Amino acid sequence: MEPQPPASPSPDLGSLVKAVRRLTLVVWCLIVLLVVLYAVPWLSYLRFKLSDHSSAPAAKSDSSNLLPSEDFDNDFHARPPEEKIRRATVILVTEIQREPGKHKEVIREIVKRAPNVRFYYKVGDEYEKISHAPAPDCADCEGQGQVVFLISNPAQMASSYSYRNDRIEGMGGLSLAELRQMAQQTK
Length: 187
What we know:
- It is a single chain.
- The protein is of the alpha+beta class.
- It has 2 domains: 11-65; 76-186, CATH 2.40.50.
- The chain is 39% helix and 22% strand.
- The protein has a 6-stranded antiparallel β-sheet with strand order 2-1-3-4-5-6.
- The longest helix is centred in the N-terminal third of the chain and has 54 residues, at 11-64.
- It is rod-shaped and about 130 Å long.
- The protein starts with 10 loop residues before the first helix and ends with a helix.
Protein backbone atom coordinates (compact mmCIF):
# COMPACT_ATOMS: atom_id res chain seq x y z
CA MET A 1 0.00 0.00 0.00
CA GLU A 2 1.15 3.30 -0.90
CA PRO A 3 0.93 6.19 1.52
CA GLN A 4 -1.55 8.79 0.46
CA PRO A 5 -0.67 12.45 0.43
CA PRO A 6 -2.47 14.62 2.97
CA ALA A 7 -5.83 15.77 1.71
CA SER A 8 -6.07 19.40 0.75
CA PRO A 9 -8.97 21.35 2.10
CA SER A 10 -11.93 20.91 -0.07
CA PRO A 11 -13.45 23.94 -1.77
CA ASP A 12 -16.57 23.46 0.36
CA LEU A 13 -14.64 24.01 3.59
CA GLY A 14 -13.18 27.29 2.27
CA SER A 15 -16.59 28.68 1.34
CA LEU A 16 -17.87 27.65 4.77
CA VAL A 17 -15.09 29.62 6.48
CA LYS A 18 -15.88 32.69 4.35
CA ALA A 19 -19.60 32.45 5.21
CA VAL A 20 -18.84 32.19 8.94
CA ARG A 21 -16.57 35.26 8.74
CA ARG A 22 -19.32 37.25 6.97
CA LEU A 23 -21.90 36.20 9.54
CA THR A 24 -19.54 37.16 12.37
CA LEU A 25 -19.11 40.60 10.78
CA VAL A 26 -22.89 41.00 10.41
CA VAL A 27 -23.46 39.99 14.05
CA TRP A 28 -20.88 42.55 15.26
CA CYS A 29 -22.48 45.24 13.10
CA LEU A 30 -25.88 44.45 14.65
CA ILE A 31 -24.41 44.60 18.16
CA VAL A 32 -22.87 48.02 17.44
CA LEU A 33 -26.19 49.23 15.96
CA LEU A 34 -28.12 48.08 19.04
CA VAL A 35 -25.66 49.81 21.38
CA VAL A 36 -25.96 53.04 19.38
CA LEU A 37 -29.77 52.83 19.32
CA TYR A 38 -29.78 52.29 23.07
CA ALA A 39 -27.26 55.04 23.83
CA VAL A 40 -28.67 57.89 21.66
CA PRO A 41 -31.80 58.56 23.74
CA TRP A 42 -29.76 58.51 26.94
CA LEU A 43 -27.19 60.90 25.51
CA SER A 44 -29.94 63.25 24.35
CA TYR A 45 -31.58 63.08 27.76
CA LEU A 46 -28.32 63.80 29.58
CA ARG A 47 -27.46 66.66 27.23
CA PHE A 48 -30.92 68.17 27.81
CA LYS A 49 -30.60 67.81 31.59
CA LEU A 50 -27.14 69.39 31.63
CA SER A 51 -28.20 72.31 29.46
CA ASP A 52 -31.39 72.73 31.53
CA HIS A 53 -29.42 73.00 34.79
CA SER A 54 -26.80 75.33 33.40
CA SER A 55 -29.34 77.82 32.03
CA ALA A 56 -31.94 77.57 34.82
CA PRO A 57 -30.56 80.26 37.15
CA ALA A 58 -30.24 82.81 34.35
CA ALA A 59 -33.79 82.18 33.12
CA LYS A 60 -35.21 82.39 36.61
CA SER A 61 -33.51 85.69 37.35
CA ASP A 62 -34.68 87.20 34.05
CA SER A 63 -38.33 86.32 34.58
CA SER A 64 -38.36 87.10 38.30
CA ASN A 65 -38.08 90.80 37.45
CA LEU A 66 -41.30 90.55 35.44
CA LEU A 67 -43.56 88.62 37.76
CA PRO A 68 -44.49 89.11 41.39
CA SER A 69 -44.91 85.36 41.89
CA GLU A 70 -43.33 82.74 39.64
CA ASP A 71 -44.35 79.54 41.43
CA PHE A 72 -47.90 78.53 42.24
CA ASP A 73 -48.87 79.49 45.80
CA ASN A 74 -50.85 76.71 47.49
CA ASP A 75 -51.60 78.94 50.50
CA PHE A 76 -52.95 81.82 48.44
CA HIS A 77 -56.50 81.47 49.79
CA ALA A 78 -55.25 81.92 53.38
CA ARG A 79 -53.41 85.18 52.74
CA PRO A 80 -54.82 88.61 53.71
CA PRO A 81 -56.50 90.66 50.93
CA GLU A 82 -53.54 93.03 50.50
CA GLU A 83 -51.17 90.11 49.99
CA LYS A 84 -53.54 88.42 47.51
CA ILE A 85 -53.74 91.60 45.46
CA ARG A 86 -49.96 92.05 45.53
CA ARG A 87 -49.18 88.44 44.57
CA ALA A 88 -51.82 88.14 41.83
CA THR A 89 -50.59 88.41 38.25
CA VAL A 90 -54.15 88.84 36.94
CA ILE A 91 -57.32 89.93 38.76
CA LEU A 92 -60.69 89.61 37.03
CA VAL A 93 -64.18 90.79 37.83
CA THR A 94 -66.82 88.61 36.20
CA GLU A 95 -70.56 89.00 35.92
CA ILE A 96 -73.10 86.19 35.98
CA GLN A 97 -75.22 85.87 32.86
CA ARG A 98 -78.09 83.62 33.84
CA GLU A 99 -79.26 81.26 31.11
CA PRO A 100 -81.56 78.24 31.41
CA GLY A 101 -79.49 75.46 32.94
CA LYS A 102 -76.25 77.48 33.12
CA HIS A 103 -74.80 80.51 34.80
CA LYS A 104 -72.07 81.91 32.57
CA GLU A 105 -69.31 83.94 34.21
CA VAL A 106 -68.37 86.64 31.70
CA ILE A 107 -65.31 88.82 32.22
CA ARG A 108 -66.54 92.33 32.98
CA GLU A 109 -63.20 93.90 33.90
CA ILE A 110 -59.51 93.04 34.11
CA VAL A 111 -58.48 94.91 37.24
CA LYS A 112 -54.82 93.91 37.16
CA ARG A 113 -52.55 92.25 34.63
CA ALA A 114 -48.81 92.05 35.27
CA PRO A 115 -46.54 92.75 32.30
CA ASN A 116 -45.56 89.77 30.12
CA VAL A 117 -48.01 87.40 31.81
CA ARG A 118 -49.69 84.99 29.43
CA PHE A 119 -53.45 85.26 29.85
CA TYR A 120 -55.70 84.23 26.99
CA TYR A 121 -59.01 85.96 27.80
CA LYS A 122 -60.35 89.46 27.24
CA VAL A 123 -63.30 91.50 28.50
CA GLY A 124 -66.53 89.95 27.23
CA ASP A 125 -65.20 86.35 27.14
CA GLU A 126 -66.79 83.64 29.23
CA TYR A 127 -64.44 82.40 31.95
CA GLU A 128 -65.47 78.73 31.78
CA LYS A 129 -63.56 77.63 34.89
CA ILE A 130 -66.17 79.22 37.15
CA SER A 131 -69.27 79.01 34.95
CA HIS A 132 -71.65 76.50 36.48
CA ALA A 133 -75.12 75.01 36.61
CA PRO A 134 -77.42 76.96 38.94
CA ALA A 135 -78.27 75.48 42.31
CA PRO A 136 -81.99 74.58 42.41
CA ASP A 137 -82.52 75.91 45.96
CA CYS A 138 -80.68 79.17 45.39
CA ALA A 139 -82.49 81.92 43.52
CA ASP A 140 -79.98 84.71 44.21
CA CYS A 141 -77.42 83.31 46.63
CA GLU A 142 -74.52 83.55 44.20
CA GLY A 143 -74.18 87.31 44.08
CA GLN A 144 -73.61 89.33 40.92
CA GLY A 145 -70.38 87.66 39.86
CA GLN A 146 -66.90 86.70 40.98
CA VAL A 147 -63.56 88.37 41.67
CA VAL A 148 -60.95 85.94 40.37
CA PHE A 149 -57.29 85.95 41.42
CA LEU A 150 -54.77 84.32 39.08
CA ILE A 151 -51.08 83.78 39.78
CA SER A 152 -47.96 82.55 37.97
CA ASN A 153 -47.14 82.65 34.27
CA PRO A 154 -49.15 81.53 32.40
CA ALA A 155 -51.86 82.83 34.72
CA GLN A 156 -53.58 80.09 36.74
CA MET A 157 -56.63 80.53 38.90
CA ALA A 158 -55.74 80.58 42.61
CA SER A 159 -59.08 81.62 44.16
CA SER A 160 -62.34 83.42 43.51
CA TYR A 161 -64.85 85.28 45.67
CA SER A 162 -68.41 86.27 44.91
CA TYR A 163 -69.46 89.89 45.16
CA ARG A 164 -72.80 91.57 45.74
CA ASN A 165 -73.56 95.32 45.70
CA ASP A 166 -69.91 96.00 44.86
CA ARG A 167 -68.70 94.26 48.05
CA ILE A 168 -66.50 91.14 47.94
CA GLU A 169 -68.10 88.72 50.37
CA GLY A 170 -65.16 86.43 51.13
CA MET A 171 -62.68 89.27 51.65
CA GLY A 172 -64.22 91.00 54.64
CA GLY A 173 -66.59 93.15 52.60
CA LEU A 174 -63.80 94.86 50.62
CA SER A 175 -65.38 97.07 47.97
CA LEU A 176 -64.56 96.75 44.28
CA ALA A 177 -63.37 100.39 44.32
CA GLU A 178 -60.90 99.56 47.11
CA LEU A 179 -59.77 96.48 45.16
CA ARG A 180 -59.10 98.63 42.08
CA GLN A 181 -57.20 101.20 44.13
CA MET A 182 -55.02 98.56 45.84
CA ALA A 183 -54.36 96.85 42.50
CA GLN A 184 -53.24 100.17 40.96
CA GLN A 185 -50.75 100.64 43.80
CA THR A 186 -49.14 97.23 43.12
CA LYS A 187 -48.52 97.82 39.41
